[in-house]
Amino acid sequence: MSRAQRRRDDRAIEALPDTIELVVLAIRSGLTPATAFEVLADQVPEPLAESFADVTHALHRGRRLADALEVFPQRLGPAAASFSDALSTADRYGLPIEPVLDRLAIDVRAERRRRADRHARTLPVKLSFPLVACTLPSFVLLAIVPAVMGALSTLRGSLP
Questions:
Q1: Under a CB-based contact definition with an 8 Å cutoff, are residues 92 and 100 in contact?
Q2: Which domains does the chain have, with CATH numbers?
C-alpha cells in the first residue's frame, strides 16, 4: 500500500466517529437512514465523501440502503464495516438504529483514542535522533572543547 493511500485511510478512520455522530443526529432529527445519507453526502469530510456519494448514487438508482452500503467496507476498510453492518441490519430487519449507532460511535471514538495514544508513544522515538543530532554537537562545542582547550593551555604553560 502506498504512503498516499495509507494517509487517505488514516484520514478516513479519523473522520469516521464524527461522521457516525452526524448520521445519528440526522436520524434522530427524523430522517430515515437513506435520507440521512443523501443529506450528509455534501457535509461529510473529504475522505468519506466519495463513499457517501456512491451510496447516494446507488440509492437513486433504486437499490436498498442495505445493498448500497456494501461500498463502505470495500472503500474504507474494516473500520467502516461495523458501521455499514449496523445500518444494513437495521434496514433489512427494521431494528431501531439509534442505540446501535450510539454504541458504535463510542467504540469508534475509543479506537481513535487508542490510535492517538499509540501515535503519541512513538513520538519520543522519532524525536530521539534530532535531539541527539542537535544537542550532542552543541554540548561538545560548549562544554567539552573549552575544557580540553583549558587543559591544553595549562599543560603548555607548565612545560619548560
A1: no
A2: 3-117 (1.20.81)
Q: What angle do CA 76, 124, 139 make, to 5 degrees?
A: 150
Are the CB atoms for 35 and 60 separated by under 8 Å? Answer: no
- The pLDDT tens digits of the residues spanning 3-29 come to 887 887 778 878 888 888 888 888 888
List of residues 6+ apart from 60 with CB closer than 8 A: none
pLDDT band at 137 (very low <50, low <70, confident <90, very high): confident
Contacts of 80 (CB under 8 A, 6+ apart): 12, 16, 51, 72, 73
Measured in Å, how far apart are the chain's first and last C-alpha atoms? 71
2 three-state secondary structure? coil
DSSP 8-state assignment for residue 42: T
The answer to whether the CB of 82 falls within 8 A of the CB of 95 is no
Cα 54 from Cα 142, distance rounded (Å): 62
The residue to which cell 452500503 is assigned: 69
Which among 91, 21, 83, 90 has a CA at the least distance from the CA of 59? 91
C-alpha cell at 85: 453492518
For the record, the C-alpha cell of 25 comes out as: 443526529
Record the pTM.
0.67
Looking from the CA of 139 toward its CB, the CA atoms found within 13 Å total 6
